[in-house]
């Protein structure tokens, strides 16, 4: 993950010599290289443009930081702005009913298992349920995952997704759960019926979080779909899956600016443990090497 950015950022920033003065031309040259790197890594065009504008303005106008070289000062500015576009602060998961939404095949069900495992390890009481009544196989997949993680799976003899959602929430409250992780129907494409169903579930259970599960490998397309979801059921966060297979990682840099919600976790493999909390500052540090 981020291999390309790490390599390219290193290369461009290392061109700044450790001299005491850096010319505007040098700054422009470095920023031009960073721009190419960002776009090659599939960072949203507007996000890249705004990022470079801020870095350039700060580097050329702010007083250089005391006690560090001009080069380090530029690297620090890039680091701060990178942290910023990655979302700034680490985002928490609010207790309550957490709705997972997204298209089929993005890794939504697997991710619910991972998040259940993560929260359980943190000492929270977690239950899971699925409203994907059209795909019994998906429900069974979640039930098996819950069994492996060791958290209850709520099953109801119901055909209405909204009823399942409401009954699951009631049961979770009764059983004193900190979190109810609720899977929703996944389709291959966005359709009106799916959106209406999500809207109804959302209104019925008033979730604490609506998390959009996106496949990082799908690049900018994942963001376009996320925006469509966001218009119908306002999202509170994104989980990017399959980051282990995406050496570019540009989507991770684009989510916050493009949709306005933070990335909360990233999926980095198929196993239940393969989930990382998304720390913008640590990621920025990793990118800068
Ligand atoms: P759903 O249709 O969205 O519920 O998708 P699934 O949870 O069934 O996942 C689809 C495929 O993606 C499965 O083969 C998962 O093992 C795989 N998958 C999910 N998350 C990740 C991830 O972070 N990394 C990798 N490499 N594979 C993942």
From TrEMBL:
It comes from the Bacteria. Its EC number is 3.6.5.4. GTP binds at residues 102-109, 183-187, 241-244. Residues 262-275 form the SRP54-type proteins GTP-binding domain. It is found in: Cytoplasm. It is an enzyme of class 3 (hydrolase). GO terms for molecular function: 7S RNA binding; GTP binding; GTPase activity. Its main location: cytoplasm. It catalyses: GTP + H2O = GDP + phosphate + H(+). GO terms for cellular component: signal recognition particle. The keyword Lipid metabolism does not apply. Keywords: Cytoplasm, GTP-binding, Hydrolase, Nucleotide-binding, Ribonucleoprotein, RNA-binding, Signal recognition particle. The keyword RNA-binding applies. Involved in targeting and insertion of nascent membrane proteins into the cytoplasmic membrane. Binds to the hydrophobic signal sequence of the ribosome-nascent chain (RNC) as it emerges from the ribosomes. The SRP-RNC complex is then targeted to the cytoplasmic membrane where it interacts with the SRP receptor FtsY. Belongs to the GTP-binding SRP family. SRP54 subfamily. Composed of three domains: the N-terminal N domain, which is responsible for interactions with the ribosome, the central G domain, which binds GTP, and the C-terminal M domain, which binds the RNA and the signal sequence of the RNC. Part of the signal recognition particle protein translocation system, which is composed of SRP and FtsY. This is Signal recognition particle protein. The lineage of its organism: Bacteria, Pseudomonadati, Aquificota, Aquificia, Aquificales. The gene is ffh.
């Amino acid at each position: 993950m981020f291999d390309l950015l790490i390599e390219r950022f290193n290369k461009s920033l290392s061109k700044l010599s450790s001299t005491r003065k850096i010319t505007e031309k040098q700054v422009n040259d470095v920023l031009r290289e960073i721009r190419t790197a960002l776009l090659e890594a599939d960072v949203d065009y507007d996000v890249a443009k705004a990022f470079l504008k801020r870095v350039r303005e700060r580097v050329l106008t702010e007083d250089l930081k005391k006690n560090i070289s001009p080069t380090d000062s530029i690297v620090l500015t890039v680091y701060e702005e990178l942290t910023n576009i990655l979302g700034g602060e680490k985002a928490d998961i609010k207790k309550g009913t957490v709705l997972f939404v997204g298209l089929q095949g993005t890794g939504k069900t697997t991710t619910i298992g991972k998040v259940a495992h993560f929260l359980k390890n943190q000492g929270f009481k977690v239950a899971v349920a699925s409203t994907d009544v059209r795909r019994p196989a998906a429900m069974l997949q979640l039930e098996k995952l819950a069994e492996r993680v060791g958290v209850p799976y709520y099953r109801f003899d119901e055909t209405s997704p909204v009823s399942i959602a409401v009954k699951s929430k009631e049961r979770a409250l009764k059983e004193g759960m900190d979190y109810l992780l609720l899977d929703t129907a996944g389709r291959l494409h966005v359709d009106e019926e799916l959106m209406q169903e999500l809207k109804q579930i959302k209104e019925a259970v008033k979730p604490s979080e609506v998390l959009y599960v996106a496949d990082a490998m799908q690049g900018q397309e994942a963001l376009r779909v996320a925006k469509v979801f966001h218009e119908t059921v306002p999202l509170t966060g994104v989980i990017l899956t399959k980051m282990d297979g995406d050496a570019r990682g540009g989507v991770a840099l684009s989510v916050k600016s493009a949709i306005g919600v933070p990335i909360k976790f990233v999926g980095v493999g198929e196993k239940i443990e393969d989930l990382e909390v998304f720390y913008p500052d640590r990621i920025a540090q990793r990118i800068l090497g």
